[in-house]
Amino acid sequence: MRGTARTALKFLGVALGAVLSGQAWAATCQNTGSFDRWLEDFKKEALANGIKPQVLAAAAPYMKFEQRIVNRDRAQGVFNQSFLKFSDRMIANPRLPNGLAQISSHADLFAKVEKQYGVPAAILTAFWGLESDFGKNTGNSNIFASIATLAYDCRRPDYFRPQLLDALRIVQRGDLTVDEMMGGDWAGELGAMQFTASDYYKNAVDYDGDGKRNLVKSTPDTIASAANFLKNLGWKRGEPWLQEVRLTKDLPWDQADLTIQLPISQWSAWGVKPAHGALPAAGTKAALLLPMGRRGPAFLAYENFQVLQGWNNSMVYVTTVAYFGTRLAGAPAVHRGDPDIEVMQPQDVMELQRILTRMGEDIGEPDGKVGAKTRAAIKRAQMKVGLPADSYPNSELLQRLRASASAR
Predict the structure, then answer these.
(1) Three-state SS string across 327-364, please?
(2) Max Cα–Cα distance, the chain, nearest Å
(3) Section 230-241 average pLDDT
(4) Phi-psi region for residue 306, left (φ > 0), alpha (ψ -120 to 50) or beta?
(5) 285-289/262-263 β-pairing
(6) What pTM, to 2 d.p., does this model score?
(7) Nearest alpha carbon to residue 116 among 226, 196, 241, 194
């Protein structure tokens, strides 16, 4: 899950914001040229990059254009959900007790993996659970059709073309046969951790010693490969990733930003306290994460949290998997904050994004999704109109910006 979403669970549903996003893409991105001609050019490129003719011939029947895949890719909407709604759904029973059972059942494996790679069982199991429900939902579609379609499609060809080459390299290396390259319904991800083909090729390890890196059927390979991936992303052994905290009302809200990492001593001086347990050493750096603004749950996000964003860049997903990891490690359920926290509808977020764009903010195509650029723009807008700058969108900010725009 990194630059693209990575699991069927994360791709379920077509919310209004996703529909609007798809419409926006349709207005700016149109496929031109024949897929068959594109595929012939790609085959030449693959051969030039060392793919053997017999591997290409075996995969070729699966490399076909499917419009449904384009439609699904342009209609992602589940990440428009709030952190509480998404995490409630993703960590609902029986996933939490099942995760604890998996940690117990594979205790020796997890201990060996942590000793070698430094990544604890809780965070590996959190990804394992959210990506595939511990291997139960890995997908039943051959990924070559998905990746070939998305490599041809105009939306993200520069991302998916290398993925298609690496999918062929996985087969050529002998890890899986073409027929075993089964994964998610449309996004082209493999195995119980739903790796992209490129992440599979670069990070998969043979941990059961059978000579293959099999993340579809081998649990040892799956767990160790996930740990290897996080280590390669920069995971720091023995350090925390996320911790729930309690805040004071007079906190400098503009400091609540993942790009602002301050020592624990500073957060403590501002009255930030642990919700349970103790804070780490005073010099440890952390960012204040408010996934639903100052009235919602609050966390200190440590450097390892930033590493998790290399797995998936959706903030609601990464926050949920990190939180799930804390629950598996023994933390209680998060404090839900104000029961009346506003969650803006995608169409209102899109209006806010359009206003921000007219104000000169570079947030990309308005799509109804509150990503990093939109959050940063919201923060600047809040500061301009005198609202607490917690980077969280609400109707009060929208109304003030409407009034400001009409007064010009």
Answers:
(1) HHCCCCCCCCCCCCCCCCCHHHHHHHHHHHHHCCCCCC
(2) 70
(3) 98
(4) alpha
(5) antiparallel
(6) 0.90
(7) 226
